[in-house]
């Protein structure tokens, strides 16, 4: 649904609400949406990034994850309110376009697209690295190429196949974390394994206290923790292809608190109780370190398989979302027109194909600089991902104000505590961005942001000039019915 279709949506035609959006097929059921939502909150940020965060903050990292988790819940409820007002495939960029203006919609669509391209490169690079755990003879670039091509092929078949693959990817991650929690509880309470004599909940405060690096150390981990939650908003992109969005999406969003409580806070409490925080080091998975302390020889291999799954899941999600974002931009006259085409299976293959071509650049990076590839592309992901959260919150505030004045229909899924919760979340994100500026390792992403903003500004001026020449309002060029191109199937 493009912006010019909003008024028709407000007519309250229930049949229209249940019809496929913009030619997409509603192939994602409740089971798949729920697991996509769960999987979006579990990634390499937890399995690997938590090691660095623990070394910087000690046990207080648990508090950091809890606070950020609360902010993430506020963001997701704000998104849920917008989704129930108008479930659309373009999601964030559509809401930005409607409530914040065409330029913000343009920036949001292209920035979220770039976020997933960069994340796709990062995750494929990580996956290629994990393969070398079993066979160092496989070139990193070759593994990255195989993964990229294979996931692209899956995304060309149907949205049901994408959903099914994400379901099983998420199932692996969930099973691994639950298994780790149960084993850890057994070690702590029953005292078995090599770590049985030292495993205790007292490890949470016995080695320098709960804040061994002070409050400052905890604050400096916030950007790492925020990175761990990036992609949790992906469930919003599925709105145009969910079988029953007004029933399925609220359920998925309302599971955010227990997901964060179990998979992040619960897992970290157990891990830091089994093993002292002083054991963990940056670049080493805390799960691997915990399994080694417990004395399970297969533990490292199991965790390596799980993080490989997490990386492939993220890359798969990236391919899914990039095609939808490019098509939404094209439908609103803010991107090349050929991105509007759909295959006979209702898939935006042109947008996905171009995005994958960009991701293949990551294969070249793996070939040229295999040791530094991950660091070359990861720095921009956090700031671009947080932009989507900022837009969600700002759009929800504008929507709620209009709805309260009677200018728009009220959402069936209001964000509790809004507008105060949304304002708090925006202030928190602003604080994290400031902390990124203080941290030399994270500062590079802030250097990249103005360059990207300049590129977008020039691009938008070109669109305005084109539209003015055609006698159109900016960003309103040629919004036609969905195009299906059977040749793209």
From TrEMBL:
TM helices/strands, residue ranges: 35-54, 60-79, 99-121, 141-162, 174-195, 215-239, 260-280, 300-320, 347-367, 373-397, 418-438, 444-463
Domain of life: Bacteria
Subcellular location: Cell membrane
Keyword Transport: yes
Stretch list, region Disordered: 1-23
Membrane topology field: Multi-pass membrane protein
Residue span, Amino acid permease/ SLC12A domain: 33-468
Keywords: Amino-acid transport, Cell membrane, Membrane, Transmembrane, Transmembrane helix, Transport
Coiled-coil annotated residue ranges, if any: none
InterPro entries xrefs: AA-permease/SLC12A_dom (IPR004841), Amino_acid_permease_CS (IPR004840)
Signal peptide start and end residues: none
Main location: membrane
Family: Belongs to the amino acid-polyamine-organocation (APC) superfamily. Amino acid transporter (AAT) (TC 2.A.3.1) family.
PANTHER family referenced in this protein's UniProt entry, alphabetically: GABA PERMEASE (PTHR43495), L-ASPARAGINE PERMEASE (PTHR43495:SF1)
Protein name: Alanine glycine permease
